[in-house]
Amino acid sequence: SLSPAARTPSVARIPAAALHDAAGRFGTPLYVYNAAELDAAVARVQAAFGDARVYYAMKANPNLSVLRRLFAAGVGFECVSPGEIARAEHVGAAGDALLVNGPAKSDAEYAAGGRLGATFIVDRAGEAPLLPPGSRVLVRVNPALAVSTHDHLATGAANSKFGVTPEQVPPLLDALRAAGHTPLGLHVHIGSAIRDAHDFTAAFGRLAELRPHTGPLAVLDAGGGWGLDADLPGIAREAWAAAHAFGAQLWVEPGRYLVARAGTLLTRVVGTKRTGRDFCLVDAGMTELMRPMLYGAVHPVTAVGKAAVDEAAGEVGLWDLAGPACESGDVLARDVPLPAPQRGDLLAIGEAGAYGAAMSSSYLTRSRPAEALWDGSDWTLIRRRETPQDVWAMEL
Ligand code: LLP
């Protein structure tokens, strides 16, 4: 019943036959990305935010091929580690195209960012003497808001480690100027996968309230955090309103929004068992996709090229998709409607382009998965599968 003529899984927007082809050529588990979806996401952001400068938060998916494609579309990068700065440099980004951020930057990050002419996002007063001389900086403001997302993903709450309080902003701007740096403006990022648009309205409003205490500023960086169904034009309107209050240019830092929908994790059914639950065991798990275990994230699952056939035959049951790891938390999805799963069936786990491959691990000496890019007619392998030897290569 795995007919290539069956319907294309909407999670992938890649023809089922092409997904089978990729799984056959590169093996599973496999991350696949649709280039057209990447381009479409960039276009949606650019259309909604107009002249805003877009910095991709590369933590979401740092694959060099993804970075090159986004850079070619005019997108800069937000980097939060020496390795991310090195990736940006490797694809040719520097100066205006680079933001260096982080709550606990190392000497290596100050040095590399300085050498490349990056703008730094200052997270605490103590950074003033650590920055390279004459740095361009933004000050990260923590608006102290309860944010509608998983606790681990909220960064603008009063108890979060990020940024400075609104009251601390004016003296910090003065201290940065006195130290010879150039404060371009303010930065706010209240969290990730935010469900309620009012959170953004509240955060940008807190920033705008600072205007009488800061005077005009050149830049307002509204961060990222947009859920996949976010009303981008609405968020853009609020962000621009806050920017205009300062006479500022708007910058944004989306991660998930740019890459999540383009990515799919392909995994094969290993077998099934009916015990306390009905389990469909697959060859991917928490080591390939950590988000369900870590944040209770829900990803759509489709049987590639099979659903349409067997739904009609009334053979669809509800299955818990479980991986190969020896941990009970290694469940990728619960109550997934699947048509009579058979060993070897190919499943597509959608919306996995952000924080999927990026957070995969070699725990259990599992080989991190390969990644392939679909250009509409063919596949390019953009990361080969790790081997066990790769995993232990650094051990002496
Ligand atoms: N800017 C800053 C300062 C950030 O810390 C982040 C993400 C972003 C931008 C991009 O946020 P996005 O648009 O992707 O929501 N591992 C988690 C997500 C952690 C996000 C960390 N910061 C997950 O799998 O959902």
Automatic annotation (TrEMBL):
It catalyses: meso-2,6-diaminopimelate + H(+) = L-lysine + CO2. It comes from the Bacteria. The modification N6-(pyridoxal phosphate)lysine is found at residue 59. Residues 34-353 form the Orn/DAP/Arg decarboxylase 2 C-terminal domain. It is an enzyme of class 4 (lyase). Substrate binds at residues 256, 291, 295, 327, 355. Its EC number is 4.1.1.20. Pathway: Amino-acid biosynthesis; L-lysine biosynthesis via DAP pathway; L-lysine from DL-2,6-diaminopimelate: step 1/1. InterPro entries: Ala_racemase/Decarboxylase_C, DAP_deCOOHase_LysA, De-COase2_C, De-COase2_N, De-COase2_pyr-phos_BS, Orn/DAP/Arg_de-COase, PLP-binding_barrel. Residues 37-260 form the Orn/DAP/Arg decarboxylase 2 N-terminal domain. Pyridoxal 5'-phosphate binds at residues 225, 253-256, 355. Keywords: Amino-acid biosynthesis, Decarboxylase, Lyase, Lysine biosynthesis, Pyridoxal phosphate. Coiled coil: none annotated. Its cofactor is pyridoxal 5'-phosphate. Pfam families: Orn_Arg_deC_N (PF02784), Orn_DAP_Arg_deC (PF00278). Homodimer. Specifically catalyzes the decarboxylation of meso-diaminopimelate (meso-DAP) to L-lysine. Belongs to the Orn/Lys/Arg decarboxylase class-II family. LysA subfamily. This is Diaminopimelate decarboxylase. It comes from Deinococcus aerophilus. The lineage of its organism: Bacteria, Thermotogati, Deinococcota, Deinococci, Deinococcales.
